[in-house]
Amino acid sequence: MLPEKVDLNEASLLWNLKIRYDKELIYTYTGSILVAVNPYKMFDIYGTDQVKLYEGRILGTLPPHLFAVGSSAYSQVCAANNSSNNQVVVISGESGSGKTESTKLVMQYLAAVNRAPSNLVTEQILEAAPLLESFGNAKTPRNDNSSRFGKYLEVFFRDGVIVGGKVTQYLLEKSRIVTQANGERNYHVFYELLSGLDQQLRDKYGLLDPDKYFYLNQGGNCKIEGKNDTQDFKALLSAMQVLGFTSEEQDTIFKILSSVLHLGNVYFHRKNLRHGQDAVDIGSDAEIRWAAHLLQINADGIIRALTTKTTEARNERLLTTLNIDQALDARDAFAKALYSSLFSWLVARVNHIVYKGTKQTAAISILDIFGFENFVENSFEQLCINYANENLHFYFNKHIFKLEQQEYAKEKIDWTTITYTDNLPIIHLIAKKPVGILHLLDDESNFPKASDLSFLEKCHYNHALSELYSRPRMNSAEFAIKHYAGQVWYNVDGFLDKNRDTLRPDVVELLISSKIPICYDETQNTYCIGPFPRQPTATFRIHVTVSKLLIKNPAQLFGINLIFQNFPRCNPWFVRCIKPNNEKAPMKYDMPCVLEQLRYTGMLETIRIRKTGYPVRLPFAHFVDRYHYLVPATCLPRGAPSKELCRIILEKAASAEDQCQYQLGLSRVFLRESLERTLEYNRALI
Ligand code: ATP
Ligand code: MG
């Protein structure tokens, strides 16, 4: 049954997708945009036969498929003789809609179709995906394999051959390392490690079962139905092998992971000092000794950093004791720093292998970020994730509606403007200087006396009148933003600390004192690439990344914008992923759930502009050059301006009903995709 208040066009789109989905056709085009409805079930449609089928075929000549997008992007790259033909596949959709799976499928297609499919670097780029998923994905209520970081994968080509790649990661969710809500898990790698490691190695790292670790069992269930952690651990080891990780590096990675788990089990007893000052004792020192042993740090040093604080005043170092909350925070901060440094290092390590620096002719990039989220409780992480998605939506709108219509106006094309919901006001509310919510947060983070509540007050004061912003009815510590995909309430608890994201100097010193080498070959300066600052080789250890965290970086929130700033030099291909139901159920098409997504993504307007717009545009001379064969040479007067020649070719080569399928602008000819297909078809017959 159709949900209420659905207009005719919406209904036909909704039904069309449903009918196709019921026939197991999960892909549909709206113009050149590919809509993918998640089947939650693997179909046999990604084999080599399909790769071959789509190879070299332009979009629209075969049934809709992700491979058709891959093939079109790849054809452009092969035709490229300079980097201006860079392509970007922009994959969007809410959490669980299928972005990461689509990313992998596009990459698989490129790997299979490129002119040297079995070269090592291609295999290494493919293997980077499961490696990064182990460390950067986790179970959430929306998705059992949810990306908790943004990924921008660039694949470099030279003469149609993959010659290298590069991964950029954004905003790994750090809070997950130490807390998970009910039904969630920590990052997959921990469970995989505990399930896949043999007894001898478990003893070496002092490891027990996952339910014994506070950092792993808060969600109430350490298993995911349908996921085999032991097998995935094997896959992780094999990925590491393909990527050339040495056994020393592997050992270091396992030591860091194990230390994080040991630290999570450190607990404290409250004790009262004289003058009523709070202090704590470590509950048991077994975990501390394990962490100290694995990280090669002095155990007393760890105890000191977790129970006391050094402050400097008038050139004097003052030692004060921590209360129990501060001690727990110190412990969690230490664990988060360890894990997030490891993650940054892994990405740099992967890049070191796959980024060859070889001269390339063009690139295909694939953007796969964390999808829009609206949980029962939303915090700073959700604000970052949703802000990134607002940017993605803005980029989509800009390309599909704004630039397109600007171009029509400039070229004086006969055109009735199509309106769409511009989300720029939401982006301004969140990030515009000086009072955008993130700027208020940064200001407050720099102000020692500020608190989460004083930040909230400033938000209310500056934005209460905005219709995109809401204050809570009760006196709760929340605010709401009306995002393009719906209203989300954010609880400000912990916002300031999460934004500051700094480590106490005591903890940094502790990390610096670690003797474990995370650098493979220090003498060669091997990993001083990518996001790492170039450091004197001898001191290049884990603390390089940790001290990087210390750099107060208000721009980190806006870092996600950098990707979009790079895009203008790329030709975009859009894939819109749709989640068919909220239960992760295979082949279940829930109308209200799909309709909501079609509405907020502006799919109807997109269809309208794709149907009535002219997405293909060619300079007159170029058009004449390509299609003059379609009419007898005698029809084309010598020396006539190319615009005139264009008109003649189109009047003669396009059928009567196709005469509305093009327009001549001031400098270019504009065509609908269907007419271009007909012209191409006729051209191929000659
Ligand atoms: P998030 O924003 O949370 O990272 P996502 O959009 O990346 O979400 P995916 O992890 O790609 O979502 O997909 C969620 C699940 O849906 C997958 O684990 C898989 O079970 C299923 N799925 C997605 N795409 C496909 C597909 N093409 N074929 C079969 N199953 C799929
Ligand atoms: Mg994902």
| SS field, number of helical segments | 26
- End-to-end gap: 50 Å
What structural class do the secondary elements suggest?
Answer: alpha+beta
**Strand order within the widest beta sheet:** 1-2-16-3-12-6-7
Which kinds of small molecule does this entry bind, naming each only once?
A: adenosine-5'-triphosphate, magnesium ion
Give the biggest beta sheet: 7 strands, mixed
Molecular shape: globular
Strand content: 5-15%
What is the number of beta strands? 19
Q: What is the mean predicted local confidence, pLDDT?
A: 87
List the helices and strands and how they pair.
Blueprint: H1 8-22, E1 27-30, E2 33-37, H2 48-54, H3 66-79, E3 87-92, H4 99-113, H5 120-136, E4 137-138, E5 146-147, E6 150-158, E7 161-170, H6 188-196, H7 199-205, H8 214-217, H9 229-242, H10 247-264, E8 268-272, E9 278-282, H11 286-295, H12 299-307, E10 308-313, E11 316-321, H13 324-354, E12 362-368, H14 380-410, H15 424-431, H16 437-445, H17 452-463, E13 469-470, E14 478-483, E15 486-491, H18 495-500, H19 505-512, H20 543-550, H21 559-566, E16 571-578, H22 591-600, H23 603-612, E17 616-619, H24 620-627, H25 642-653, E18 662-664, E19 668-671, H26 673-685
Parallel strand pairs: 2-16, 3-12, 3-16
Antiparallel strand pairs: 1-2, 4-5, 6-7, 6-12, 8-9, 10-11, 13-14, 14-15, 17-19, 18-19
Helix pairs in contact: 3-4, 4-5, 5-6, 5-9, 5-13, 6-9, 10-11, 10-13, 13-20, 14-15, 16-17, 24-25
This protein binds adenosine-5'-triphosphate (ATP) and magnesium ion.
Residues 38-42, 93, 95-101, 142-147, 370-371, 577 line the site of adenosine-5'-triphosphate.
